[in-house]
Amino acid sequence: MKPEEKLVWKLIDRNITPEEFEKLQESFSTSKELRKYYQQCIETHTVLSSYTKPDLDTLSFPKPEKEKRTKPPAWLGWAAAALLFAYFGLAPEKPSQVKIAASDAPDWRGTELSLGDRVPHHLLFLRDGKIKMNFPSQTTVQVAGPAHFQVIDNQTLEVMDGKIEIAHRGKPGSFTLLTPIGELRDLGTRFSVNIQNVDKQTTMLTEVKEGKVEFKNRKPAQNRILSEGERLLISGTHRGAPAEFHPWSEQEKDMPDSKNDLPEFDEPESIALQTPKFTALDVMLKGNLKAQMKYSMIDSVAQAIDQKARILVDAEKTFSGIHDISFAEAAMPEIEAMAHAIVDGCIDFSKLSLWSTCQTAELSWHEHKDNTGRVIHRTPRVENLKVPGEGNRMLVNLKQIKTWLESVHQLHQEKGMGWVSSFGCPEDGKLIYLRRENDIAVLTKTIRSIQQNLD
Amino acid sequence: MKENKDDRFFVNELTKAQAKMRAYVAKLLAHSSSTDDVLQECNQLLWVKRAEWDPDTIFLKWAYRVCYFKAMAYCRDQSREKLVFNPELLEMMGQETPDEYTQSSREIAMEQCLAKLKEASRELLLERYRKNFSVEELATREGLTANALSQKLLRLRYKLHHCIQENLKPKPAQV
Predict the structure, then answer these.
(1) Among the three residues B95, B111, B135, which one is the final residue of a domain in this structure?
(2) Boundaries of domain holding B29
(3) Which residues pair with B175 in a beta bridge?
(4) What residues of chain A lie within 8 A of the CB of B33, using their CB?
(5) For a tag site, which of A60, A272, A421, B165 has the least CB within 10 Å?
(6) CATH classification of A99-270, choosing from 2.60.120.1440, 3.40.50.720, 3.20.20.150, 2.20.25.10?
(7) Residue A373 has what DSSP assignment?
(8) What span, in angstroms and rounded, lies between the C-alpha atoms of A299 and A392?
(9) Is the pLDDT assigned to residue A270 strictly greater than 60?
(10) Which residue of A has its CA nearest to B14?
(11) Which H or E element spans position A376?
(12) How many Å apart are CA A155 and CA A177, to the nearest integer?
């Protein structure tokens, strides 16, 4: 054990002298490895401490007794909630038998699940894409994002919102879908549900494709059986509130969503794999919020420049040199204004990275196949381009502006210094000439700097 | 405050992040006994600011920033505390976030490593952590001086930690 490592453990035990602490601080300042070691030791210490604590995880969560409840102070409520949530969050879960059977470009937030993974018993957020889960009750559930849902147990799924398609081949009544306004018990059937929440109101478009489904909530009078082919819009505020039932058809335009938008249920293997809509840049910047924000600003500036530059590009294409006037001469004020805005504006373009000003990489897909050779999963890969593409056209436009500016400058040399002066005064023309020369030099330096900035 | 699905999702993320956040705060506070108090303040602040969190971004990164500023504020206010890192080092450490291993994966690794220790050594280490006995009491029982026992515990912990880190490393795929 190195002396510094020994000091780390002494610090964790808070058994370190001020002199030793000073020495350790110095070592931390110079050694990243030691700082990393310190971080890891703290985590080990934390796990060791919690491991030996009395086993509280087996305690059951007490149900609140309404009769005895008194109103606690607000801070106590928050603290208790935090403790309870922390308790449940850290408590070990019973292994789930529910597995991901298929997926189509799933975009998870929080917990990410892949093909074959067991679905944990906590709240999941599928932002986009589709997944299919197999329950041991011989139930297949397809979820299309955006959806918040939670597998409660091997026979129960709770869905806060989202589009769900269920096929139940097991014992009638052995699968339950919990929704914000009631529960749907599957009586050996296929059905789809689209749950949406607006303010306090939940609406649930339910369509029974085969068999029967029972809707229940805490108002017994509300219980009803939905039969094959029946389509019902069920709305309400919570599971204890009366629900309203309205028949609906595909033709109705005022429905929050139409049947066509629901994910079509097929057998698991028929989920079509589609290429997700993202670029190499999205993959490159994934998880780097700072870079994402920076790039969105750069991209906005690039678009603004491109909008202006394209006007000149289009004008140059249709320009017919009347009276021997070149395009550079005709568009000189616009070209100079654009160049000057870049050179003398509020943005230092020379600090931009090459990747943010053009396309330096492209996305390729690595395919994963099952035993039958069917593609079941695709993984995106970023591959650098040998020759960068235009991308957001920032670099292309900077080069174009420089070229135009050089044309004007060349013309100025040919026509003499008094050329651009309103009064033909060589001194005025010289000042404009020198300023343009400076702009060209700065633009050249900026472009070179961007091309060399390969981070 | 009414609970809605966004709050539930937020609480889920906050709950999952607790162990990593605690390790991060403990690191910045030199494992001070005030770690849990500061962590609680961080939780409160995160809860108050929950509307500012974009679910499209990584929760822990945002949480670490809040923890960092809370830890900074704590260190600034602790003029009497001797074991406080200097601001430069604090900033440096603040930028280095814990690794991605979850507490449960570390626990699994630790259980495997504890199983490799001799039973007597394992019991000694765990008893020390259970805090049922003081170092002096344990030393008397083991027939050692307090200093010798401390050294023994230090070596055991070092060995265990090394084993955990090795276990956490990704294993090469078997052919």
Answers:
(1) B95
(2) 5-95
(3) none
(4) 14
(5) A60
(6) 2.60.120.1440
(7) S
(8) 7
(9) no
(10) A86
(11) strand A375-389
(12) 9
The pairing of strands A182-186 and A375-389 is unpaired
Higher pLDDT, A184 or A91: A184
pLDDT (0 to 100) of residue B156:
92
Q: Which of A10, A16, A28, A47 to probe by mutation at the B interface, max B CB count within 10 Å?
A: A47
Residue B75 shares a structural domain with residue B15: yes
Contact A46 B26 (CB under 8 A): yes
- Checking if the pLDDT of A170 tops 80, the result is no
Chain A contact present for B89, CB below 8 A: yes
Residue B174 located in a structural domain? no
In this complex, do A48 and B157 lie within 8 Å of one another by their Cβ atoms? yes
> CB A35 to CB B15 under 8 A?
no
The answer to the question of residue B173 being in a domain is no
Mean local confidence (pLDDT), A430-437: 83
pLDDT confidence tier of residue A87, bands split at 50, 70 and 90: very low
Give the span between the Cα atoms of A386 and A389, in whole angstroms. 9
Predicted confidence at residue B25, as pLDDT, reads: 93
Contact B89 A25 (CB under 8 A): yes
CATH of the domain at B23: 1.10.1740.10
A-chain residues within 8 Å CB-CB of B164? 44, 47
Q: By the CB < 8 Å criterion, does B151 face chain A? A: no
Contact flag B12-A122 (C-beta cutoff 8 Å): yes
Q: Which of these three, B95, B120, B153, is where a domain ends?
A: B95
pLDDT above 70: residue A161? yes
Q: Are A195 and A202 in contact (CB under 8 A)?
A: yes
> B81 and B35, same structural domain?
yes
Query: How many other CB atoms are found less than 10 A from the CB of residue B90?
Result: 20
Tell me if B31 and A110 make a contact (CB, 8 A cut-off). Answer: no
Domain with CATH 2.60.120.1440 in chain A: 99-270
DSSP symbols for A315-348: HHHH---GGG--HHHHTHHHHHHHHHHHHSSS--
Contacts of B110 in chain A (CB under 8 A): 44, 47-48, 51
Q: For residue B106, which residues of chain A lie inside 8 Å, CB to CB?
A: 43-44, 47
Q: Of the candidates A6, A11, A42, which has its C-beta nearest B23's C-beta? A: A42
Q: Rg of chain B's alpha carbons, rounded to an integer?
A: 20
| Separation of first and last alpha carbons in chain B | 55
Q: Quick check: B151 pLDDT over 60?
A: yes
Looking at the fold, whether B130 and B53 belong to one and the same domain comes out as no
Chain B residues closer than 8 Å to A85 by CB: 11, 14-15
Highest mean pLDDT pick, A245-254, A271-280, A372-381: A372-381
- Least CB-CB distance to B56: which of A35, A39, A109? A109
CA of B85 vs chain A CAs: smallest distance (Å): 7
- Interatomic CA distance for residues A79 and A61, integer angstroms: 16
The percentage of residues in chain A with a pLDDT greater than 90, rounded to a whole number, is: 8
Residue B107 lies in a domain: yes
| Bridge partners, residue A192, by sequence | A165, A207
pLDDT at A63 over 60: no
Same domain, B124 and B71: no
Cβ of A47 within 8 Å of Cβ of B103? The answer is yes
Q: Is the pLDDT at A27 greater than 50, yes or no?
A: yes
Hey, are the CB atoms on B26 and A25 less than 8 Å from each other? no
